[in-house]
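Dear colleagues,

For the upcoming journal club I promised to circulate an example of a predicted protein-ligand complex. I picked one with flavin-adenine dinucleotide because it came up in last month's discussion. The inputs are reproduced below in full, followed by the predicted structure.
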Amino acid sequence: MKITKNLDLTSYNSYKIKASCKVAYFPESEEDIVSFFTLNKDFILLGSGHNIIFSKDYYEKPMLLFNGNFNQVEVEDDVLEIEAGAMMWDVAQLALEVGLSGVEIFYDIPSSLGGAIVMNAGASGEEIKDVLVKVRYLDLADLQIKEIFKEEMSFEYRNSFFQRNTDKIVLKAWLKLQKKGKTEIREKMELLKTQRWAKQPKDFPNAGSVFKRPSGYYVGALIDELHMKGFTIGGAKISEKHGGFIINFNNASGSDILEIIEEVKRRVYNLHQVKLEVEQRVI
Ligand SMILES: Cc1cc2nc3c(=O)[nH]c(=O)nc-3n(C[C@H](O)[C@H](O)[C@H](O)COP(=O)(O)OP(=O)(O)OC[C@H]3O[C@@H](n4cnc5c(N)ncnc54)[C@H](O)[C@@H]3O)c2cc1C
């Protein structure tokens, strides 16, 4: 297992917030993961860092990262067996190469497999749970490796069994896809990507939608109504292109982003008595 002391975390979070940690572990196998958790009871766990806000500039606790390491993918007929650190856009690309459909949305959702399951990531009416069969995980309660089927996980919109049970670490998952023509798969991937790039701010670091969609409202429309596009604190601001995104336009700190979030929540509540829920995980 690769172990790095005093790791600069700027390139390990998509907001590009400057932070560092005392020691970072990059596991390559289940044995590495079990040995990390045998030794460390108090830790920080990151996937590819595309849905997190660093609230501190230095982390003393040991950090375990699934960021392109522990990333093997096996194809057996129409089922993919994927390790937690595999990037989902690589999985989408591989599925295209073998003529399997069902993960096209992940061509443009930056995520590790583990992060996608924890967040129940998705777009355009599809979510990872739609293709999920089962997950293999390490249960920190007894340090045993277990498996759980989709039906037992009670997924919700951007929520999952693993988000509610942070002592369960996703090791691997099986996705069942559908055989389809490569041209059709490629076209869907490209279409989804083009549609998303037209709407989202791609020129500044961000971590996707900040808030979950509240029932009966759209976050972008609420921000428009409040005239908050471009609202700035320190180096962070609400994107002028998409009000649901906060961007780091000038060396933002995590607290700049968190202060904007609090202000949006306060104003939305005052206007509509709607309590916005933050999708991103504060570390
Ligand atoms: C430009 C952009 C566009 C985006 N668009 C979308 C979108 O369309 N739809 C969508 O759903 N999301 C979107 N996101 C958000 C992000 O891509 C997803 O939330 C993604 O699933 C996060 O995965 P990650 O590996 O980066 O997880 P991280 O951000 O690293 O971690 C998220 C949480 O998962 C936990 N975690 C990670 N790996 C594991 C594991 N193996 N076991 C247990 N816990 C784990 C972490 O501790 C943390 O609490 C977007 C982000 C960006 C930057």
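Two points we might discuss: The domain at 219-282 is CATH 3.90.78.10 (Uridine Diphospho-n-acetylenolpyruvylglucosamine Reductase; domain 1). The chain has a mean pLDDT of 97.

See you all on Thursday,
B. R.
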